[in-house]
Amino acid sequence: MKATNLITLILVIIGGLNWGLVGLFQFDLVAAIFGGQGAAISRLIYVIVGLSALWQLVPLGRAFSTDEPLAERAH
Asked: pTM higher than 0.70, yes or no?
């Protein structure tokens, strides 16, 4: 796995966990750590996580184009 894919995957997972906290407990960990949702660093992190999600569409598209999901179902 390329370093970029690994880093963006980790960021997407962190973002998903943060959204889970928001949904379950109305607690935004990123905002709590970095000074609120409006803080420049928090907004930057939200943008980076969002861009990471977009980046992860590339390997997902490759997996579908090589029938990797179908190969996984066969096991």
From this structure: yes
